[in-house]
Amino acid sequence: MMQGFTMMRRHVLAVAMGGALAGMLAMPAQAQQAIRVAMGDIASVETLGLLIAMERAKERGVPMELTFFNSEDVATQAVVGGQADIGVGAPYAFIQNSRAPLRMFYRMSTLLFFPVVNTDHYTTWADLDGQEVTVHSRGSGTEALMRLMESQHGITYSAISYVPGAEVRTGAMLQGTINASIVDSSGFRLLEEQGGGKFARLPLDGVNATDEALYGNERFLNEREADVAIFVEELLRTWTDINENPEMVAELRTQYDLLPDLPAAGVDDITPYYVSAAENGVMPLGGGTTDDVADDLAFLAAAGQVQPVEGDVDTTMFWDFDILTAARD
């Protein structure tokens, strides 16, 4: 009798524990802390792809929030210090110099920028010798690109100024406060439309490198691996959708009420920007490869931003491909 009671008690306890465990496993991810994404830029049309992927991840139970910082440097420090979980950028130099446990895990965009000059002052790269140029932020792809051109053309800038936001730099060029900078395709179209023919794009010689990637602290990536995997799956899906149908971005912006304060000119530029991005491969499919890492390091080394890597590149120093590989599969 007692043995039967004990067996029944164990059965009830097992059922109760199993039910409790099932309940814990079924708890929505909203009960967890939101994944905090840090971006060293201002909200713009370029941000919409990332915002859409974040909204889709939320729909699958992964809470996320995006915070804008003054620069990529500040955003990186926020990730290092634990004030943010994921950063937006390509911190190869920071990782190499500091040995910080940061790893990139998704390649969001490739460099497609437009070095532009006011032809009232300059017309060639040689004209920029001894002159000031303006880029996005310290350590950014825009700075690397301008540094590389400085080396390739045998010139030396008098100074490099940092002004976050391609649209901000575009506006400054229209206002005449800067005369040599680097902007995106939207900015260049605006300069062509409103610049009265005085702005010209300087030529670039075959540059293929990452503009922005997503990265996180190794500990965070391990602790929240399942949630980050869902986020990566939605990034892959969103990037594929945009490349197949760039017009969807404007529709999803309305659906998710993203960037509600975007000015009318910005709203009008959404579809042209993403059509151009799709045509020029700015939003690459697949999320990144080890070959991309090697290309990035070669580019940044040529631009003087990282130390050249001897021999085979140890990609694990900079990237964690495990989550991306799992998401692809």
UniProtKB/TrEMBL annotation:
<dbReference type="InterPro" id="IPR006311">
    <property type="entry name" value="TAT_signal"/>
</dbReference>
<dbReference type="InterPro" id="IPR015168">
    <property type="entry name" value="SsuA/THI5"/>
</dbReference>
<dbReference type="Pfam" id="PF09084">
    <property type="entry name" value="NMT1"/>
</dbReference>
<feature type="domain" description="SsuA/THI5-like">
    <location>
        <begin position="58"/>
        <end position="247"/>
    </location>
</feature>
<keyword id="KW-0732">Signal</keyword>
<feature type="signal peptide">
    <location>
        <begin position="1"/>
        <end position="31"/>
    </location>
</feature>
<protein>
    <recommendedName>
        <fullName>SsuA/THI5-like domain-containing protein</fullName>
    </recommendedName>
</protein>
